[in-house]
Amino acid sequence: MAALRAAYRAELADGTDAFFAPRSRLCPWCGSDRIAGHLRTTDLFQHKPGTFVLDRCHDCGHLFQNPRLNERGLAFYYRDFYDGLGEERLGGVFGGRTAAYRSRARSVRPHLGGAAEWLDVGTGHGHFCEGARAVLPAVAFDGLDRSDGAELAERAGRVRRGHRGSFPDLAARLPGSYDVVSMFHYLEHCADPLREVEAARAVLRPGGLLVIDVPDPESRFARLLGRWWLPWLQPQHLHLAPAGNLRRRLTAAGFTVLAEEHAEAHDPVDLLAAAWVALDALAPPEDLPWLAAPPGAGRGALRGAVLLAGVPLLLVAAALDRLLAGPLAGRLRLTNAYRLIARREPDGAPRPPG
Q: Distance between CA 249 and CA 271 in Å, rounded?
């Protein structure tokens, strides 16, 4: 921890301004200049220093981080979240979501003809592929990730092949190689989501399927819970596109949208996550290497007391999440994500205006 603290201190010596690109004056989705601040928050998950702003376009409704993290900033804020200090914790979270992974696979199954080659983009350690294999035994799963997670997934037998790197680069090397591409909570992390959609078209065979799950910024929970709504996930989520925007963009890119699902993509954790994040913000943080100094024993005891006192709140929040799950969440527009399943049309097919 002491060695990590020294490294973080050196990286933060000049403050956090160096982690951001210049502020954009235009919406990256439609090009409109009618943008304004929507949310201002901090890193509520790792408690790394910095302030983050989400702007909203008043023409198309797109929400985006502005100013956006640059490559140095992305590397800084991702470090020790999915890997390093956070690898074991997040690995346990993702590894325990088998039921959700199989539900995703069942959503795609009616649109598949049988045996297929599937690329899971942003696969992490390949836990989705491992879970989905029980539902789709005739499918061969490959994974792609920027980290070494995909390579680890290949060694663990969760994927046939694990590719490391960027999706557009892989699509340029392997055009027309897959029958299905999935992006489960990946697109919102991308600096240029429209480029990722074009990469999906390039790597898919004609008639292939693209499956996208992303947070739904039109969820009522986004307004009700404010900065405590988990899917804001700042500073990692750079873009949050309303379903209509993404559906129209897929159509313009040469896809036919076959299904739009909300209740099926919903993860019933909004209230529990908001309660936990709020308690975590109230309690002094644990020993983390990006803090100037480790907290003393008194502050650690105070944190334990705050979290213990919050247990009843967490239990009530979890019960309410379950009560509001499923079709009820859809009817009340409380779903925190949506899923689009689209078919890649052959090259040369007419594309409607974007």
A: 31
Query: Could you tell me whether strands 139-145 and 162-164 are parallel, antiparallel, or unpaired per DSSP bridges?
Result: parallel
Does one domain contain both 133 and 219?
Answer: yes
Q: Give the pTM.
A: 0.92
Three-state secondary structure string covering 13-62? CCCCHHHECCCCCCCCCCCCCCEEEEEEEECCCCCCCCEEEEEEECCCCC
Range of the domain at 298: 270-323
Please state, in angstroms and rounded to a whole number, the distance separating the CA atoms of residues 66 and 190. 14
**Model confidence over 242-263: pLDDT tens digits?**
999 999 999 999 999 999 999 9
Is 331 found in the same domain as 188? yes
Q: What pLDDT, in 10s, does the model give residues 199-250?
A: 999 999 999 999 999 999 999 999 999 999 999 999 999 999 999 999 999 9
Q: How far apart are CA 80 and CA 90, in angstroms?
A: 10
Q: What are residue 338's DSSP bridge partners?
A: 214
